[in-house]
Structure formats: structure tokens, C-alpha cells
Amino acid sequence: MTTLASLRRRAATHRLGTYIALTFLVTWGFWGGVVLFEPSATTLLQLVGGFGPLIAAAITAWIAGDVRPWAAQLVRWRVPVRWWAYAVLVPGGIVGLVVVGSVGFGGGIDVSRLPGAGSIVAIGVLTFLRGGLEEPGWRGMALPLLQKRFNATVASGVLGVVWTTWHLPLFVTQGTNQAGSSLVLYGMSVLPLTVLLTVLYNNTRGSVLLAMLFHTTWNAIQGVVGPAITGAGRVSPNVLVLVVLWIAALGAIAIHGVSDLSGERLMEIPRPTR
Questions:
Q1: How many C-beta atoms surround the C-beta of residue 257 within 10 A?
Q2: What DSSP line would sit under the chain, residue for residue?
């Protein structure tokens, strides 16, 4: 008879598979429940389902005995200032270039659609809960395990595919930001975004804190600026986002190298420094 201890040993041996399976089980379990409950419960189910990467990472770390090093990444703030700037300015710069491009190709910006200060704070909190808190899983658990098998660029590509697939239920659920949009276009945007996050993670000795800041900033700026872009012009803003992201990602690969995307590729969850 298979014992609990035996299951834990197997799960610890296959941490990556365990993590991915748990992530999809938790998230898709809650997101799938949307079709079974009243619309009033949809927002709560989607919010809780979005914690799947975090919950799965915590469980996997507990099974493998890695809770302390895994959790230490979440508060790793002592990194060079330039990487704090990277976490904020790269998302802001990409969206800024998209805005400039949209105007240049015949679109427009309606300043009256920009939210007030109170709404911006609310958007920031919401995007942290519905985006930033994914990072303890994607970067804090999956990325170092993938980099143990592949170089940093390939690991980013694999993680980008997993990350995109994880969002799949949102594309078939009414009322979500992804409903009715192109899964292919979304996935092609997630891939370069994943490369940029790998650069940040590897160059900060595994700071998931900064990855959370990057992810939150990216989602929040889009939530603030996106509604103000009026008229598609000759080129869709979504296409511009895709182009700018790929230019940024290819530039990062050229600067930091295909193999590690930094001076060092993290192939294990980094241990806390004493």
C-alpha cells in the first residue's frame, strides 16, 4: 500500500510536475466552478483561483522541505537599485511606447478616461492580488526548476507556454478581460514577458519580491492607460504591445546571453544568505 510518506517522497523527487499539477488543479477547479454557481460568486471564484500558483508553490515547498528558501525569495529586497528601477520602468516604458505608437498610427488618447487617484490605488491593489501573487509560483518555484533542465531562454519559453495555458478558462468565461480576445496573440505576448521576468529573477539572485513588483506594475499600468487609448488607428494597440515586448525581450537576450540571461542561471531555489 502506498503510504503518505511514499507519496511525499515521489512528489519531492518530481517537484516541477507536482507544482504544475497542483497549480492547474487548484486554479481550474475554482475557475471551472464559475459555470456551476450564480454570477455573484464569479468574482470570488476567479480571485481565489488566481492564487493557484501561490498555493501550489507553498504546498510543493512544504513537501520538498524547501519552505524557508522558497519563502525567503518573497522578501528579498537587498538588490542593486537598477533592478528596482527595471521592475518599474520596463513595464512603464513598454506601455509608454505603445501609447506613442498608437498616436503615431492614428489612434488617440482620451485623458478624461484616465482614473482618479483613488481608482489608481484600487487598481494597484487588485492587480497585486490578481497578478503579482502569481509570482511566488511561476518565478519562485517553476523557473528555477525549469532552469535546472534547460537554459534560461528555453526555460522561459516553456514557462510562457504553461503560463498561457493556465489562463485558458478565462478565454471562455464571460466577463473576464480575456473573454473574446485571441489566445494566440495573448500567448505570443506572454513569451517575451516571461523572458523579461527571467532576466529580473536571475539578476537579483531570485528576488520574487521584484518579480511581483514587475507583474503588478505591468498589469496596473495597462489597467490605467489601456481604457484611455481611443481608436485603433492603422495598427491595433495589442499588436503594438506584442512588437514592443519582443523587441525588449530580444534586446535583453542579446545583452545578457541566451544561456543564463544574467551572470548566473539559478537552477535551484536560492538559499537565504546568512
A1: 15
A2: ---HHHHHHHHHHTHHHHHHHHHHHHHHHHHHGGGGS-GGGHHHHHHHHTTHHHHHHHHHHHHHT-HHHHHHHTT---S-HHHHHHHHHHHHHHHHHHHHHHHHTT-EE-GGGS--HHHHHHHHHHHHHHTGGGHHHIIIIIHHHHHTTS-HHHHHHHHHHHHHHHTHHHHTSTTSSSTTS-HHHHHHHHHHHHHHHHHHHHHTTS-HHHHHHHHHHHHHHHHHHGGGEES-TTS-HHHHHHHHHHHHHHHHHHHH-TTTSSSS---SPPPPP-
* Cell numbers for 168: 485558458
Residue 110: per-residue pLDDT? 79
The residue type of 116 is: G
Mean pLDDT of 249-257: 97
Q: Residue 192's pLDDT band (boundaries 50, 70, 90)?
A: very high
pTM of the predicted structure, to 2 decimals? 0.93
92-129 residue pLDDT tens: 999 999 988 888 888 778 777 888 877 888 999 999 99
Cell numbers linked to 102:
498608437
- pLDDT single digits (tens) 221-238: 998 988 888 765 677 888
